[in-house]
Design a protein that fits this description.
The protein has 154 residues and is of the alpha+beta class. The radius of gyration is 15 Å and the shape is globular. 34% of the residues lie in helices and 31% in strands.
């Protein structure tokens, strides 16, 4: 874990919609997402309400004091692994917060769904995410469409 960075993860709420949408529609985030299209406010708000009510999904906001660092989500797939995804807020990129966010989310995911496999799907062109997940104990195990499947070696 990156030394000197402490943060908290809290469950996202409907009032986080503005930050989540801004981070999601950031050009770098869009380039590295499964769906690279810009998301409309209406579509995002409807998705967020469904996601917050879904017992098989967690969306966390990473914070350091009042500073919002980004978001991590975990989706527990029926009959399959829990899939993590991370978005570091554009202003926080390159500061080492991604590893701390991911470690915290791994601990929460393992606590909520003990024993479940944890994976991530990453574009091969997304070097920063590939390096982040590898540093945090993930290994590439497969490929699906244009994405690499990484599995956490817990």
């Amino acid at each position: 874990m990156t030394e000197g960075i402490t943060l908290t993860l809290r469950l996202a709420e409907a009032c986080d919609a503005d930050d989540l949408l801004a981070w999601r529609n950031d050009p770098v985030t869009r380039t590295n997402s499964r769906n690279t299209a810009e998301i409309s406010r209406e579509s995002h708000d409807a998705w967020l309400l469904r996601a917050l009510a879904d017992a098989n999904r967690r969306i966390w906001i990473a914070e350091r004091g009042v500073e919002r660092l980004g978001t991590v989500s975990a989706v527990r797939n029926a009959g399959g692994p829990v899939e993590l995804s991370i978005t570091v807020a554009p202003a926080m990129r390159g500061r080492g917060v991604g590893a701390v966010m991911l470690h915290a989310a791994l601990a929460e995911t393992a606590r909520i769904w003990p024993g479940d496999a944890i994976t991530a799907m990453i574009r091969p062109s997304n070097g920063p995410s590939l390096r982040l997940f590898e540093r945090c104990g993930f290994v590439a195990t497969d490929r699906k469409d244009d994405l690499l499947i990484y599995r956490w070696r817990n």
